[in-house]
Amino acid sequence: MxxxxxxxxxxxxxxxxxxxVKTVGVYSDPDIELRHVVEADEAVxxxxxxxxxxxxxxPSILEAANESNVDAVHPGYGFLAENPDLARxxxxxxxxxxxxxxxxxxxxANKLESKRVVSEAGIPVIPGSRKEVSSLEDAEGEARRIxxxxxxxxxxxxxxxxxxxxxxxxxxxxxxxRAGAEAKTGxxxxxxxxxxxxxxxxxxxxxxxxxxxxxxxxxxxxECSLQRRYQKILEETPSPVLKNLERKxxxxxxxxxxxxxxxxxxxxxxxxxxxxxxxxxLETNKRIQVEHLITEMVTDVxxxxxxxxxxxxxxxxxxxxxxxxSGSAINCRINAEDPSNRFAPTPGRVSRFVSPxxxxxxxxxxxxxxxxxxxxxxxxxxxxxxxxxxxxxxIRRMRIALAETVVEGVPTTIPLHQMLIENRLFVGGExxxxxxxxxxxxxxxxxxxxxxxxxxxxxxxxxxxxxxSIAVPPGLARKSDWRSSFQERSNxxxxxxxxxx
Length: 501
Ligand code: ADP
Ligand code: ADP
Ligand code: MG
Prior knowledge:
alpha+beta, binds magnesium ion, binds adenosine-5'-diphosphate, 21 strands, disordered C terminus, 3-stranded antiparallel sheet
């Protein structure tokens, strides 16, 4: 049973099909039409749209598992993926939980605690407080000791929530209140701690697969420094900044984290690399990650398959020296968010979806023409990833893939990615986690028109100036593209016909 929805549920079902493992999908009321419901061998209704009543509702999930007589539960990412209570409930009722055992989830959930364990093993961690903030006075004392700027973090946080930068003592009280409230709503607990805020670092993480008997492999790193408000937007592998020796050191640190935390199953060790090249351990993500696909594209390892093999007791299918790294891969997270309205989520219905394709392109999505985007869930609707022998070619493929992708009916972050992959600093590989928020301060997304509108405009243009060789490409949804392709083909000044649209 896959206790999740959308693209990741579909992704997991695909591997199960390959392994001839029967699948049960689950769905909430608004999700009844989704592709994971159709593609699973069976599907069980688990409640209304609100996550707390369906995908986050452990009794509902367990009932569905028992009712359909499954052997194992894969939690995907988000929702209950790292919740030790679901893992424990599975263990107690004889179900296999596809992920680390509850004792590991429980131990590593507390970020402060895992920082302590890792630091005691000699792995560098970002300087910060060693215990939860207990009062404002306590926080002030710690802040003075650490030195500003400071990042307030939720002890049980995740997904970029519950984080606040504090630049002076004056901001501390308000920052603690806001971060605490966000953590309380997001994770049910408001415990906070403080950390030194590093200037312009990079986020580089290592994909690890750990068997049950202590065998630990790595599948290389992923560079995830392009973030908006601490949330990843675009990821790539290998990191454009790492030289071989540095990569070896990073991977060694990640394997050591896996070892000292006695980690099991697939996991990601996240690190921050400061601008002077030092690595600091950030946290362990104890699940399959959103961006796992780029690692699969350069290693040809099916991470979900390895997760299932470990959980079922079969053990890993390969050893470290069988893993070969080839090429460069990039992933763009396409979110249903409006770039021209401060990235507000845009639930609704997708009237038309056209997937990109061609050599080296992988699209993980559950979108289809007419599919709903319910208001209740994460805004990620598609991942468009490209692989090529060189990073330059992967970027070129991405440029084409993004231009081919059509999502109509709900605004998406495609224009943001189109801007990013043309950015000089991105192309040069010289970026850091604070770049994107800076770029967004003076970025105006291009206005969006539908393909019907584009066709209508074209009809007008054709009647006025006959250029029969020009056709509006079917996937043309953005005015800027329309203008440039028109321009290329006709050598006419675009102002002639685009004005006033
Ligand atoms: P990844 O590196 O896998 O992309 P993210 O931090 O972006 O990790 O999280 C992936 C998904 O899981 C997002 O939908 C995010 O909102 C959700 N998520 C991550 N951590 C938590 C958590 N502790 N509690 C609830 N949701 C989480
Ligand atoms: P989450 O559990 O929400 O993913 P993380 O601790 O992994 O939280 O941090 C999320 C992001 O915030 C990181 O990827 C990084 O960009 C930024 N970040 C975290 N800690 C620091 C820090 N001490 N200094 C600067 N940036 C940080
Ligand atoms: Mg993180």
